[in-house]
Design goal:
Blueprint (H helix, E strand, L loop, with lengths): L14 H15 L5 H9 L2 H4 L4 E7 L7 E7 L3 H8 L9 E8 L2 H11 L11 E3 L2 H14 L8 H14 L1 E2 L2 E2 L11
Antiparallel strand pairs: 1-2, 1-3, 2-4, 5-6
């Protein structure tokens, strides 16, 4: 089964025709993408394409005001990032409330921050005052309308995202519980 944000493209005879079709699909499904970004995505080698892979996370803290969350990114482990943020200036540890893996977490974080711009507390900080549902919807929108996956990266994207989700833990518990993946009908 393929995630919804992976686009299938028909086979084409030449790389130029492949890219032309990819660009048309990008314009139709990911309106925010530039021609240059689509060109880079399409022509990147796997080591380049996944060089910025990681998580965009939502962290909460019992000592922050209601509906104030940190939305950031890490190319490493979320739990390690949470420990880095727990400094002498923070009275309590952060809790991970949501996290999504992206092939380019830097780009995804910028996309989410742009969607949440009206909720940002300070332009130099990654804290937002919004209902958690609004923040989760921004992550979902980024996943659905962010960078499309070029056809030659689909298998690696699926494998890497599954591996990331299967291996990520926070305080010894899996980041994503199987019940989190169920669709309510």
């Amino acid at each position: 089964m393929q995630p919804d944000n992976v686009i299938n493209f028909p086979d084409r005879s030449s790389e130029d025709e492949d890219f032309a079709a990819f660009w048309e699909e990008c314009k139709a499904t990911a309106q925010r993408i530039s021609y240059e970004r689509a060109h880079w995505l399409f022509h990147a080698k796997p080591e380049e394409y996944f060089s910025r892979a990681g998580w965009v996370y939502v962290l909460g803290n019992q000592f922050l005001a209601d509906d104030v969350y940190k939305v950031g990114r890490t190319t490493g482990r979320i739990e390690r990032r949470m420990r880095q943020l727990y400094t002498t200036g923070v009275p309590g540890e952060f809790d991970c409330l949501d996290a999504w893996w992206f092939a380019d977490c830097h780009h995804a974080e910028a996309f989410v921050h742009e969607l949440l711009e009206d909720y940002r507390l300070d332009l130099s900080r990654e804290f937002f005052c919004a209902d958690l549902k609004v923040i989760k919807e921004a992550l979902m929108m980024c996943s659905a309308t962010g960078d499309p996956c070029p056809p030659h990266m689909v298998e690696q994207m699926l494998r890497r995202s599954r591996n990331a989700m299967d291996s990520e833990t926070v305080r010894g518990a899996p980041l994503i519980e199987p019940s989190d993946l169920e669709v309510p009908f």
